Recover the amino acids of this structure.
């Protein structure tokens, strides 16, 4: 009876999460919208994080995620050992190695997400808080565009994985070089063998959702930081406009003579220009603090993505090049290679856009109307020097690199992606030469 109640609770919980996810697909953006669309659901399904304190849910969830991870890893390792021991073709062994590299990459990135969960929560709160720039005309368009873009990426990634998972149903596990189970009882107990194959397919499908989860988590962080940085740029561009509004409201609330008006205009101008500039600098400093908090996790991910993607592309390309006929698994391998290449491409593109946005802060401040608005006077010499000092500080801060460079080993930008493709091609040539010189001989 307790098992039925537990199953009913789990079903109701999953149903409510899926319903909320479906409603989010049609919801328009507002300032209370979570920019990290669908992340909790993906992390829960993939085994990364479950937002519940219910011990029964957590116990069942822990069993499922451990079973899915260990079962897939054990089967792939066993088949790799079997293929090497039986002297299978070189491309078959490399296909198994590609699966091992993929599992290693996904689980290592999952470990990094769990380890840096506090930093991810801090970034999520920072992006969803949206406390600044609400009065700016472009801020809503920037943030809503970021949210809708994330939603499209999530839908694409989930759709891709669901299609890939459904295609597993048409694979003959009994004769597969990588997914064959370590036992075969089809002669004595065919139904039991079919049940085991289906259970393994289900566990493998659940584990495969880990790939879009870890990818989307990183992409959401970079995309959210870029959106907030663009809003900060808009606040810098409105410094003089906001200052003039403050001065105008202050002068309208005070009665003064014509002789006093000129002095008060200058006095309030210097007062509010310092406040506006200081608030913008504070927003920039807060952004840099959040960036520094999440940077170790991002650098670890970028380093793993860069080299494992190159290796995966080389292994997958060699396997596909040796195929004489098109099979379902070769199509799956091609789709996976294209997916990881696309993942790396859009991540490097987002990092490049983030770097460009950060550098544009200095340009935005530099091209403001400083020559005509700032005039040195002895009465306001201290204020003049303070504003000049802030100006130099902002220019210097914006020219500092964000250091998303894989701990100094690679500069994870879009230009580096083309270097990655060249690295993958060189690895492919090494594998091809090794096969010609050593394996065939």
């Amino acid at each position: 009876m307790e098992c039925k109640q537990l199953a009913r609770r789990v079903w109701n919980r999953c149903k409510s999460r899926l319903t909320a996810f479906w409603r989010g697909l049609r919801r328009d953006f507002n300032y209370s919208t979570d920019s990290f669309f669908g992340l909790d659901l993906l992390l829960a399904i993939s085994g990364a994080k479950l937002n519940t304190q219910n011990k029964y849910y957590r116990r069942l969830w822990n069993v499922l995620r451990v079973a899915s991870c260990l079962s897939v890893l054990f089967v792939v390792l066993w088949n790799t050992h079997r293929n090497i021991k039986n002297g299978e073709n070189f491309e078959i062994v490399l296909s198994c190695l590609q699966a091992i590299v993929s599992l290693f990459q996904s689980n290592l990135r999952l470990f990094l997400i769990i380890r840096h969960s506090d930093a991810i929560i801090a970034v999520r709160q920072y992006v969803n808080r949206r406390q600044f720039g609400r009065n700016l005309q472009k801020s809503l368009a920037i943030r809503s565009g970021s949210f809708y873009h994330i939603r499209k990426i999530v839908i694409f990634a989930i759709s891709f994985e669901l299609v890939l998972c459904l295609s597993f149903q048409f694979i003959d596990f009994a004769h597969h070089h990588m997914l064959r189970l370590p036992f075969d009882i089809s002669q004595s107990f065919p139904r039991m063998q079919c049940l085991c194959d289906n259970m393994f397919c289900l566990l493998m499908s659940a584990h495969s959702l880990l790939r879009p989860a870890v990818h989307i988590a990183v992409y959401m962080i970079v995309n959210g930081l870029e959106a907030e940085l663009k809003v900060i740029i808009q606040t810098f561009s409105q410094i003089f406009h906001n200052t003039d509004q403050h001065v105008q409201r202050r002068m309208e609330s005070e009665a003064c003579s014509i002789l006093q008006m000129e002095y008060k205009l200058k006095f309030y101008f210097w007062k509010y220009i310092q406040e506006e500039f200081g608030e913008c600098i504070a927003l920039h400093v807060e952004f840099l603090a959040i960036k520094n908090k999440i940077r170790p996790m991002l650098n670890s991910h970028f380093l793993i993505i860069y080299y494992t993607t190159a290796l995966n592309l080389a292994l997958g390309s060699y396997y596909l090049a040796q195929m004489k006929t098109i099979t379902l698994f070769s199509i799956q391998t091609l789709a996976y290679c294209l997916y990881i290449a696309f993942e790396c491409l859009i991540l490097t593109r987002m990092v490049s856009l983030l770097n460009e946005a950060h550098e544009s802060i200095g340009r935005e401040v530099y091209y403001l109307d400083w020559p005509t608005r700032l005039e040195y006077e002895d009465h306001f010499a201290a204020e003049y020097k303070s504003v000049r000092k802030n100006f130099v500080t902002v220019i210097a801060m914006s020219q500092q690199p964000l250091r998303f460079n894989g701990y100094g080993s690679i500069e994870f930008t879009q230009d580096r992606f083309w270097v990655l493709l060249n690295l993958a091609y060189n690895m492919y040539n090494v594998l091809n030469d090794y096969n010609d010189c050593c394996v065939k001989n």
In short: The mean pLDDT is 86. Residues 161 and 209 are 7 Å apart (CA to CA). Residues 16-23+30-439 form one domain. DSSP finds 14 helices and no strands in the chain.
